[in-house]
Design a protein that fits this description.
366 residues, mainly alpha, 3-stranded antiparallel β-sheet
């Protein structure tokens, strides 16, 4: 590498490197205010090219994201980058990778645990803390597996937070019906929420739906993609998981509602988005409808929880429900079972009936 001062009185670094195919390449970086900055950047780049763990956490994170490349969804990569920018780079960014010790992880965890929102005074949720720690640990695992880091300091310390928040909120059928009636003045909003509640699909899956995905004769909805807002633009991505690719049978009333919807959208093409609005619009409509209906405000995703809980209350088993909503494992589906209002009274009544029938049968035999 070489450091030069250009005609604009700025410093630049020109360097050659060998790519993965063995070809020699040349590139450069311009715009440094001082030679010290240029030399420091040159040193970091050499460490990165040589995959040396003497590089900074920030530089290694760049290498980490390059390695992930096309292996994960664009929206997932964007979420990872956001987490790093907010919570990891400000603390670990300039630290040398091989010098980050368990005590540094503990100090960072304490910093995260002590955080309070300026306006509300609320801390980070336990689930969020665990999620951020998992991102940090994943980077160190990558360094251990592929770059020779002796051990993962985040794993040595252990996680913080917990895997699940408290009780998820759901709507009963009655609560949803009140909400649905309150938003009927906007047909597109009404039909969107009808699909969310009665089919249990994800928000991104709803926003990606096209007329080609709806088979009115068979009464089915084909889920095969998702709509995400990534880096300031809307993109169509594959569904969240492999099992998210699924065909959902719709109740008859919903088939007729969607027939009316498609008739009402003039000139829509088979592969155009039906619900051509943003997630923020849905959240605004959730606010408006909840207030007008006088029901508790839940998250958009809680409509999916409500659908799963409703199916449990109707007697469907976890395998059947998991296949319908696209859960990757049956354990995820079982995690919803507790959310519907208790059926303890019904259980006790049916047990009483069983006992009474047993006593009557015994009496007849004697």
């Amino acid at each position: 590498m070489s450091v030069y001062k250009d005609k604009n009185n700025k410093w630049r670094v020109v360097y050659r490197y060998t790519d993965w195919m063995g070809s020699t390449k040349q590139t450069q970086k311009r715009g440094f205010e001082t030679k010290r900055e240029a030399v420091a950047w040159e040193k970091e780049q050499m460490l990165k090219l040589n995959c040396s763990l003497d590089m900074s956490f920030e530089k290694f994170s760049e290498l980490y994201f390059e390695d992930l490349g096309k292996r994960i969804r664009e929206s997932t990569l964007a979420t990872k980058r956001s987490t790093f920018n907010k919570h990891l780079l400000p603390y670990f960014g300039q630290k040398c990778m091989r010098d980050i010790l368990p005590r540094d992880i503990i100090a960072w965890q304490n910093n995260m645990l002590e955080y309070r929102d300026e306006s509300t005074g609320a801390p980070f949720s336990p689930v969020y803390l665990k999620t951020v720690h998992n991102q940090l640990s994943a980077l160190f695992n990558h360094a251990v597996k592929y770059y020779g880091l002796p051990k993962n300091p985040a794993a040595v310390v252990g996680n913080m937070g917990k895997a699940k928040n408290g009780e998820k909120q759901v709507w009963t059928k009655e609560e949803y019906q009140k909400f649905a009636e309150a938003i009927m003045d906007k047909p597109l909003s009404f039909y969107a929420f009808e699909i969310l509640y009665w089919c249990g699909i994800r928000e991104g899956e709803l926003l990606a739906l096209t007329p080609a995905d709806i088979d009115l004769e068979a009464g089915t909805l084909n889920v095969n993609k998702s709509y995400q807002y990534v880096n300031g633009r809307g993109v169509i991505t594959p569904p969240k998981t492999e099992k998210s690719n699924r065909t959902i049978s719709m109740p008859d009333f919903l088939v007729e509602e969607l027939r009316d919807l498609l008739r009402s959208i003039y000139g829509i093409e088979p592969h155009e988005r039906i619900f051509d609005f943003s997630k923020s619009y849905l959240h605004h409509e959730m606010d408006r409808g909840s207030k007008a209906a006088g029901v508790k405000r839940i998250r958009i995703h809680d409509l999916r929880h409500s659908h799963v809980s409703l199916l449990f209350s109707m007697g469907f088993n976890a395998v059947e429900i998991g296949n319908r909503v696209g859960h990757e494992s049956i354990e995820i589906t079982y995690g919803y079972a507790h959310m519907f209002p208790s059926r303890q009274a019904e259980m006790a009544s049916r047990l009483s009936t069983e006992r009474k029938e047993l006593e009557e049968n015994v009496a007849k035999e004697s």
